[in-house]
Structures are given as structure tokens and as C-alpha cells.
Amino acid sequence: MASVAEDVAAYLARRARWSPLEIAFWICAFATIWLFPGKHLILTEAAILALFALSLDLILGYAGIISLGQAAFFGLAGYCSGLLAKYGLVNEPVIALILSGFVAAALGFVTSFLVLRGSDLTRLMVTLGVALLLGELANRFSNITGGADGLQGVTIAPVLGLFRFDLYGHTGYIYCLVVLFISFIVARRIVYSPFGLSLRSLKGNTLRAAAIGIPVKRRLVAIYTVSAGFAGLAGALLTQTTAFCSLDVFSLDRSADLLLVLIIGGTGYLYGGLIGAVIYKFLQDWIASLTPQYWQFWIGFVLVVIVLVGRERVEEWGRALRASLARLGARVFARPVAIGGAASDGR
Amino acid sequence: MPILETIGLEKRFGGIVATHDVSLAVEKGARHALIGPNGAGKTTIINLLTGVLKPTAGSIMLDGRDITALVPHERVRLGMARTFQINQLFADLTPRESIGLAVSERLGTGGDWWRLLGRKSAVTGEIAEIIERFRIADVMHERTAILPYGKQRLLEIALAFACRPHVLLLDEPAAGVPEAERHELLATIAALPDEVTVLLIEHDMDLVFSFADRISVLVNGGLLLDGAPEEVAHDPRVKAVYLGEELDA
Amino acid sequence: MLTILFDGIAYGMLLFVLACGLSVTLGLMNLINLAHGAFAMAGGYCTVILVNRVGVPFILGLPIAFLVTAALGGLFERTLYVHVYRRSHLDQVLFTIGIVFMSVAAVDYVMGSSQQFVIIPQALQGQFIVFGIGMSKYRLLIILICGLLTIGLQLMIAKTRFGSRLRAAVDDQRVARGLGINVGAVFAVTFAFGSGLAGLGGALGAEILGLDPTFPLKYLIYFLIVVTVGGTTSITGPFLASILLGIADVAGKYYMPKLGAFVIYTIMIVVLIWRPQGLFARSAAR
Description:
The complex is a heterotrimer.
Chain A: H1 4-15, H2 20-35, H3 40-62, H4 70-86, H5 93-116, H6 120-140, H7 142-145, H8 170-192, H9 194-204, H10 206-211, H11 216-242, H12 252-265, H13 271-290, H14 295-309, H15 311-333
Chain B: E1 4-13, E2 16-22, E3 25-26, E4 31-35, H1 42-50, E5 57-62, E6 65-66, H2 72-77, E7 80-82, H3 95-106, H4 121-133, H5 149-161, E8 167-171, H6 179-190, E9 197-201, H7 205-211, E10 214-219, E11 222-227, H8 229-234, H9 236-243
Parallel strand pairs in B: 4-9, 4-10, 7-8, 8-9
Antiparallel strand pairs in B: 1-2, 1-3, 1-5, 5-6, 10-11
Chain C: H1 2-29, H2 36-54, H3 58-79, H4 89-111, E1 127-130, E2 133-136, H5 137-159, H6 161-171, H7 173-178, H8 183-209, H9 215-230, H10 236-255, H11 262-274
Antiparallel strand pairs in C: 1-2
Helix pairs in contact in C: 1-5, 1-8, 1-9, 1-10, 2-3, 2-8, 2-9, 3-8, 5-6, 6-8, 9-10, 9-11, 10-11
């Protein structure tokens, strides 16, 4: 029998290792570039939504902050990158992307102090309020933002000066997928770090977290800022791939869709946002082809049903599904497999 | 010089005086017990000491340094840790993760977001040592929420210990622990290293008198008596407080 | 300027009638009901149908809107909301957002997406000029009705048995239950009443606020601001908050057309920073 020390060391080493299923996931993801050339436009939307959902998962799934206002960061960076391109301030998309991400993160930092105080309701209010406030600002200063018509006349230069955006969305998709992957790696590092573990403790019990020396506020501000940055990246990607940005980036719909994505995919293991986004996008596409106008009704319906059934039950199904996938994976790869072990402590 | 000292500590909640002029001195390496009837304000004192509550008046000195204005996590960094009367654990983490967290915080790597947890072998060794000391090796990979109460209580103390405190405040560690699991708990407390000063709140008099080398008695928020166990055990005022005034006549 | 004050008070009182149900259900049942605006919308559309199409007189249309919406609220409460009382706030948010989305889409489907106008009786059109202040007759009616409602509410809560049961249940549910108060019934009646008030507010407000299927989402933030600033532990809190917000909004939009809408948001953020439990709330024992 291994000593406790060896056991602990082995566990810690194992927990952050890339599982075969994760590798398979990303191979499949990149393979779609060549396998489904006709679907690149919808896949691009899915990738952007996935990054957006990832940003919410970081604060909701790991730190337990309920937010209805991720759209604020999404939209701010969206307009920022659009304006940078439109007025020729920054012509290279990647630099504009990073800049817009930082702007969104800055807003996240500034508003994080509002989110720290008060109850769940206060947090909901503040996050929603900031998003709506920005939407109102965008509406008012229509001479800059184009108002209800949206930002017009945006042309995006080739990525890195080499890859032009084409009409079929090929470049756009590869661009988004690469950004998603890099962001994911960063998020993954964060989540498996000591910092990430401390976030999970904050979600569980902030009193005890403080009692073991964790500077609670500092950590929450940090993850909220990072999450805002990620949401900003997603927003900038949307503007850059569609060469357009309009007021609906700030809408409640967008934040609500995001929550739905995370419910479908599950929170707290990073892949929930990605899987949920793909399912959601294709579901939306399918339902929209049936009833184009009343998509919102069915979203509402799904939300109500899921809550009535019980999110925990849905989560359990998700967990059971993942567990059986893990077992299948173990048999296929002939060794133990975990799926993003952060949500459960695999042996 | 005492390692932990309060000077004229006072706490009011509106019209209610929960703590009144408490001047307590805990010597380094002591096994100091704080006893008193229910409602005497013992947990309030711990909350004041750790910074969860702000005192209305008075000051708190840790190792000669005034910590009255510091927030809880800063006091932990200076070497004071506590347990809670009602378990405050991380339900979804395993003991391995919880202790790993406490250790990494203490080593100052808690804010590290790029490095993977456990790359430093110092961390691993320490986690293992604490798990073994507190006899939770058999349950270390289970979710805290499903652990038996006795094991949770051990984890409760283990977490505080993982902060490597100079002063450890134990708030009724044996409370609610079933008979079968008490022995393990008491043995673990008795085996705490000598360098760690322990301030213990307890109702269990067997534990108090077998463990403590000094006892303070708290009544209605004020300090009644402070002395060696034999003194306290035989003091008629203490008997009166616990058993009722009538018997004293 | 006094006209602005007058308009602001009218707007504020309307806001109060619309939002007080939300405040009470939050304080009473700890339920975040983002679909509250949907009931207001229902009341508005109900009145539109009754007055415009069926020809019911406006004054009669108002109480009918109240009753219909209250009944709707009671129905929803017993069949849907009762399942989410014990759930986390996130669940309640998701649930009620789902309900809003469904109701918005449903109304869009049935009534179309264009803005609806209630045909206001001749008697209420135009304005009185009193001491040089132009007072729109319609707004005067709003102030009258809402004022009476507020007084009635305050009396009901302070003086009646139901009111004391309500206050007990808000203060501490478990103890209230232990005293034999049928908390479930209190919830149902309160929710229905709050929804009815929202419906009445929607009916009254159709003329001023504009009525279309996006109403619940457009005005959600206003209701939430009233609740945030006013707190959930009293009736007077949201009332004062609504008046304050009403005047601030109207004045802001008049004096600073470009930035007027932000006055409300700014107030909300300032209050949330300074006093998260609301400007007028008693310090809660919770």
C-alpha cells in the first residue's frame, strides 16, 4: 500500500494531466475545420458562444458569483474592437482583440467591487444594471456607435496581416477556434492552480476560506476581472468575424442564453460551456427553422422545464453521462481516465 | 510576555453587552481552557479574537503586536487559526483538497494562478503529514459532505492546524461527536505539538481538566476567574455559577 | 418646473404600484420574480382589449384588469411558483426569466408586436391649469388612484389581521408558522394581490409608458431599482424610493436630455455601494 505522501503526490500530479478524452475533444474540434467546411459560419457562432460561456463558468461554476451581466463586457469589447477597426486605430485584428479584451477586463475590475457586496439579488441587480447601463450609453451616443442601426462600415484587416476574412467564414472560424483554444488553456491552468482551488473554497464557504488565510475579496476581484476579459474576447471575436456590432450585444437575452448554455452543459468543469454552446447553437438552428419568430418562447420553456425538473437532476444526468464516458474511455485507452477532474476528486 | 492577550475587550450589540472588560492572557505553549455556562459569550470572544467581530472597545495583542484592526485572513497570516463550533468545511472538496488548499495558502502560493498545484514536493509532504496526524487518511479522497461527523470534526481541526498557527483556538471541538469517535479526537488534540499554544473552549469538563494547564471562567460576558485547574475546580463561585446559587447557601 | 415635479410624482406613484408587489414577494417569500413585469403587461393588454375592442368604459376596465391579473397571479403561484420557493436564487432567476420569455413571445404571437394604445375617455384628456402649473388630467387620475391604493395598502398592512399575519411571515416564516399562521395562504393571497396591482399599474401606465410585448423586459430594471433602493422590509421604503426615482428620471430627462436616463442607473449604483440593503430599509435581522 502506497504511503499517504506518495498517494497525495500521485493524485496532485494526475489531476491536472490532460485526459485522453480532453485530447480527443480538441482533435475533433480542430478536425471540424476540414470535416465540415459548409458549417463554418454556425460553428464560428458556437465557438464564440463557447468562449463567452467559459467566462461565465469561471465565476459561476468556480467562484459561485451569479451574474446576469456578462453581456456588459461582451458588448464593450465588441464595440471597442469595431471602433478600432472602423477608424483605423488598430488595423491588425489580433492586437485589437487583445486590446478590447483588456478594456473589458478593466471594466470588470472596476465593477467587481460592486459585485462583492450584498446578497445574490444585489449581485444580480448590479450586473444586470451595468449591462443595461452600457446598452443605454451605446444607444445615446449613436453618433459613435451607430445606435439602433449598429456600427456600420467596419472592415477587418487580415489576421496577422496574412489571413483575409472570407465570405464563407473559413478564416473566421479558424481564428475563433484558435483564440478559444488558447483561452481555454489559460483557463485550465488557472483552474488547476492553487488559485483555482481557492476559488472553489470561496464558492463553498467564504467564512472558512477567510479563516484559513485566504484574502477573499482579492481573489473574487481577480477572477471577476479575468472572466470579464474572456467575455470581452468573445465579444471582440463576434465583431471581427461579422464586421458588425449592434445594441443587442448588451441585451438581457444574451445573458440569459448564456445561463441556459451552462445549464445544458454543466458548470464547474470547464467543458460545460463548450459542450453546451455547441448543443445550444444546433438546437437553435433547428428550432429556428421550425418556428423562426418564436424562438424566445421555446428558450423560456426549456428554462422553466429544466428548473422544474431540477438543475441538480440535470447535473446528475450530466455527471452520470460523463462517468460512463470515462469508463468507456478507460476501456478504449486501457488506463484510468478523468473528465476535467475539477468537479470531482478522481482517485 | 503572553503570546495572546486581550486588554479590556468589550463588545456591545445595541443594548446588549456580550463581552465586558475581558483581559485575558494566554502564555506561550499553554493549554488554556475557556469555560463558562451557555450564553456566557465564549464564542463571541473567539470571534473577536479572530476578527470576525469588531470590538466596541479594548485591544488584542498577538505576540506583542496589536492586531485589533486586522481582518481575519491577515490574522491567520500572523499565526492565529481557529476551528468552529459548528463545522465550517468545504462540502464539495475532499480532505486532500481542503488541506492542500490550506497548506498552499500558508506557503504563500495561494494566489499563484499559473503553476499547477502540487509541483512543489514541500506541499505534498506537508499535506500527507497533516492527513496522517489527524487520522483522516482513510477518508481523504471522499467528498467532505459525506464524511462521518467525527471525521469532519477531525478535518475541522486539521484545516486550522494546516495554517501552522502559533495560537490555535478550538471552539468546542468535541461538541456533537459520538462516543465511538471521541477517543480519536481527544487523542489527536492531546498530541498537538508543544510549540502550538492552544486556547480551548469546551463544555466537556473531563476534556478540560485532563487537557488544560490553565482555566479562565467566563460568566455573562465577564471574566470571573483565571487560574490553575485545581483552583478553579474548588472555587465556590464557579460551582455556584454552574450549579445555581441556591446550593451555595 | 413644478409641472416636472407633478409629472415626476405621477410617474413615481405609477412605478410604486407596479413594483410594490415585487418588493413584497421578495421580502416575504425570498423570491426573485423577474417575471413581475409580465403581469403588468397582462393588465395593460387586458385593458386594451376590454376598452378598445369590447367597449368597456375605461374606469371600469381598471378594476377588471386588477382582478384578471390577480387571478392570473394566483393561478401561476399555485401551479408554478410554489415549486421554486425553496430553490436557490439562481434557479428562481432562470425560472422567472423563462416565464418572461414565454409570456413576451406569447403576447407577440397573439397581439402582434406593435405598440398598443388605450382609448382614454374624453374626460381624462387635456389638463387643468392650477396656479400656473399644467396638470395633465390623466396624471392627476394616476396620482389619485395610486395615492388611495398606497394609503389603503398601508392601512391594510398596519391595521388588519391579514396585515399582521403578513408582517409576521415576512419577519420570520418559521415562527409565524409555529404560531398557526397559514403561511402558504398568505403567500398565495399576497402574490395574487401584488400581481393584480402590477396589472393595474400596467393598465394605468399603458398611456404613459407605452405598451408592447417587450414591456416586461424594458421596465424590469426600473422595478428592480425600486426594490433595491427601497428595500423589502416595508411599504413606505419602495414608496419613497419610487417617488424619488420618478422625479429624478423625469427631471433628468428634461434638464439633461442626452444623459437623463442615466440618472436612475447612477442612483441605483450609488445606493448599492453605500447601503446594499436599500436606502429606506430597517436594518434586517436576517
